[in-house]
Amino acid sequence: xxxxxxxxxxxxxxxxxxxxxxxxxxxxxxxxxxxxxxxxxxxxxxxxxxxxxxxxxxxxxxxxxxxxxxxxxxxxxxxxxxxxxxxxxxxxxxxxxxxxxxxxxxxxxxxxxxxxxxxxxxxxxxxxxxxxxxxxxxxxxxxxxxxxxxxxxxxxxxxxxxxxxxxxxxxxxxxxxxxxxxxxxxxxxxxxxxxxxxxxxxxxxxxxxxxxxxxxxxxxxxxxxxxxxxxxxxxxxxxxxxxxxxxxxxxxxxxxxxxxxxxxxxxxxxxxxxxxxxxxxxxxxxxxxxxxxxxxxxxxxxxxxxxxxxxxxxxxxxxxxxxxxxxxxxxxxxxxxxxxxxxxxxxxxxxxxxxxxxxxxxxxxxxxxxxxxxxxxxxxxxxxxxxxxxxxxxxxxxxxxxxxxxxxxxxxxxxxxxxxxxxxxxxxxxxxxxxxxxxxxxxxxxxxxxxxxxxxxxxxxxxxxxxxxxxxxxxxxxxxxxxxxxxxxxxxxxxxxxxxxxxxxxxxxxxxxxxxxxxxxxxxxxxxxxxxxxxxxxxxxxxxxxxxxxxxxxxxxxxxxxxxxxxxxxxxxxxxxxxxxxxxxxxxxxxxxxxxxxxxxxxxxxxxxxxxxxxxxxxxxxxxxxxxxxxxxxxxxxxxxxxxxxxxxxxxxxxxxxxxxxxxxxxxxxxxxxxxxxxxxxxxxxxxxxxxxxxxxxxxxxxxxxxxxxxxxxxxxxxxxxxxxxxxxxxxxxxxxxxxxxxxxxxxxxxxxxxxxxxxxxxxxxxxxxxxxxxxxxxxxxxxxxxxxxxxxxxxxxxxxxxxxxxxxxxxxxxxxxxxxxxxxxxxxxxxxxxxxxxxxxxxxxxxxxxxxxxxxxxxxxxxxxxxxxx
Length: 871
What we know:
four-stranded antiparallel sheet, 34-stranded antiparallel beta barrel, 3 helices, mainly beta, single chain, 871 residues, globular
């Protein structure tokens, strides 16, 4: 089933929103809507957002591409444009319908923000339509399915029978990747951009990580950092550890394909359930490549990265312009060598600079070939109602076709969970041959023959003991560019034991754990023995959390020899708060220290990640009078960021297999080094005046870094002049030095703004901007600009506005700009307005060597503006 509503949806949503808003106004004005319509439909729907439907008629001379990029969100070549965001959501409309329409059109928008969902839930039926999270009943471990879809799911449940059907186009691709630790907290890049929000599952050496507690993630660029900025707790990942991440990447173009499936369960007896699953995935044809235009405003110093929503296709050109002037790669900007979706400018970019990037996103590739899976499973509950445990058996046959190397295999597993008094036993065995394939889905499944055993005892409320063991023979699957699959074998075993103590009073809780990991492959044998101790304690107003880890590792060195390593890790977090009882004075001190010492081949390396914050506030009558805040960060992977050729074996078989796709090599071994100091002071002597001063210095070096050193400072002032008149000002300067380059960048900026509404008829705004910049070579650039607006209300529904902009840039890429516009606005009703505007714009190059960016235009616009604010 395929849904092609992308072009029609914005206009349908506008019409629907307009009709609903009009119905709401009619109901509120007492014009006769039936009460049940108001109660069951109108009052259950929320409308928000804005939309602008426009007609443009402009005469343009000069660089037409610069005009197209710089006007109407990059659509200056269109006579009719339709931009904005509208969200229409309903909850239990007519007692059964829930829906959410979000239509977004902007060069700045998140591509995942555009959604359409409709669901019906009444009686035994549950139906979801649109952009949904496709799931079956997932009782069979070999036929699990969890992906973003654009289609329909239907569920039915009555008595002992539960069923679910799914039919859809696939929106993205499931990936499972392995990344070696770099003796740092990160960031670690997942080798994909635009991760689907909430789809990721992260493990470190088999231990599940919790978002917000163990790691943070930036979905747009696909980066995870094992630091919680809220609590200050960090976690350094040593070079003997392996990060495994499974996630779904949002698809822009490529072989999306379709999925159809059905799953059902039936309670044969009170403690006996049987499940059946049948599902198939058909790969789509290679789609036509599409270009994408993304817009940015200047981010300031050249140390600041710019992130594209998708990774550019390397065989297609990337065009970057600033205020319509095309930039040259290697001179004006450069891409990060390890992450093609990140680029940096070599000079300061003021906030008013308009940056356009036109590129071709790299197509999203799903799994190879067409896949079919049929499976059944059985679950027998032990004890009354299954409270003592369960015995589960799963079996599935998977078939791969439409590929140079078709295959078919059958996977089987059995698992026992049993509780007897204070003891809990978990035991299982599984056989997943290398020729078995399943439907593409996120998860930590791999092709292996394995068994596992775990025994836990809790003799009382204070003590918990545990033993565990796993043994796995793994088959790793790799597919070349022609679709041919090859397999390599390895073995991975673990033995673990732990003791946990939780006192009932003021004692000190602690957790002691031991792990022994052994692996073998064509590269050689590896072993890692590790001890860890975790504890926490509150001493008065001081909170402390302490974690210690000791590792002894041995493995190949990548050069035909052997290497051994000793690693000692420490994480200490402290937080302290003091002050007066009435909160007139408050001191807050927090520090997190993460250290990882590595010894190997006679060399030492000390990785560190130190975060510290000191804050003081002076309050008066419950309001801030003045305050000061100091932040410090020092992150460094140390002299040994990775052990060449070493792998603890845990990640084998995950980076592409019969269950999900991989991304090829992901063994980046260099990490960033960051030092950052920041001091900020605030002073609020009255309700009308606020002062804010700041200073900072930061240095970053390594992979995924700008490799720069920057120092900066500034001051902000805001003052209420009275009678609805305000003034704000900002003075900022920064100096940036490239670490391994003679390039230098320096800038000083000043912004002063006056705005107000001295009467009900008049409103105004005047903004003055000044930038003085310099540096090495020919990158010195100065600019001055004035933006002014004057508005006058002609009547209750009529208003007139005049907008004027004048700017002059000298030095590098010099330009002179003028822009004058007059707008008449008629408010049809509170959510709908009609605008007529006439605009004259002229951009002239002062640099005779520039051939792009200059144009002259004049013409008029007619806008129908929808502004929905009802909720």
